[in-house]
Design brief:
By secondary structure, the protein is mostly helical. The protein contains five helices and no strands. It has a single domain, classed as Ferritin, core subunit, four-helix bundle (Ferritin). The protein is elongated, with a radius of gyration of 17 Å.
Length: about 180
């Protein structure tokens, strides 16, 4: 059985992951409405990924014989100063999530909950990738601020390939085997 403090915080993280999914959905809709199809597709995929992270956490708790709770989420931001602003919001969000995931791993370690600590390792690795991706996107967007279609071209060139499934990823609740 996972440590109770870890369970409580993981349940809260499920809500934060679902909130991140909604925020990414809001960014995708913004870009879809503004006719940025590549940015919209990128953030729709990010929204799905964040939901999957939440469902991985749900499955972990189910597997540990703990009933997960699905908390409510804060409404996402939907007003942006320009087309670059949502990418900056995404980077800030990923940095915050990295701190939250690190906190979960620290709780598990402090509570001698080594199974939960091991579970969090995949998420720590994932956060390194997420922060790097958003940081790179923001750097390119800042350079292309006056030429947004150059950014769309960048996404077409650099981010057009579908990601292969990570065989080390935890199982997600509701996912087909």
């Amino acid at each position: 059985m996972p440590a109770q403090q870890f369970v409580d915080e993981l349940n809260a993280q499920i809500g934060r992951e679902l909130g991140a999914s909604q925020q990414y959905m809001a960014l995708a809709v913004y870009y879809d409405d503004a006719t940025f199809p590549r940015l919209a597709a990128f953030f729709y995929a990010q929204a799905d990924e964040e939901r999957t992270h939440a469902m991985m956490m749900v499955q972990y708790l189910l597997d540990a014989d703990v009933r997960p709770t699905i908390p409510g989420v804060v409404a996402p931001s939907t007003d942006f100063s320009d087309w670059v602003d949502p990418i900056a919001i995404a980077l800030a969000q990923e940095r915050k999530v990295t701190d939250q995931i690190s906190g979960l791993a620290a709780i598990a370690r402090r509570e001698n909950d080594y199974v939960s600590e091991q579970f969090m390792q995949w998420f720590l690795k994932e956060q390194v990738e997420e922060v790097a991706t958003m940081s790179d996107l923001l750097a390119v967007a800042e350079r292309c601020r006056e030429r947004p279609m150059d950014f769309e071209d960048y996404l077409a060139r650099e981010k057009s390939g579908g990601e292969e499934a990570d065989p080390t990823a935890p199982a997600a609740a509701g996912a087909a085997d």
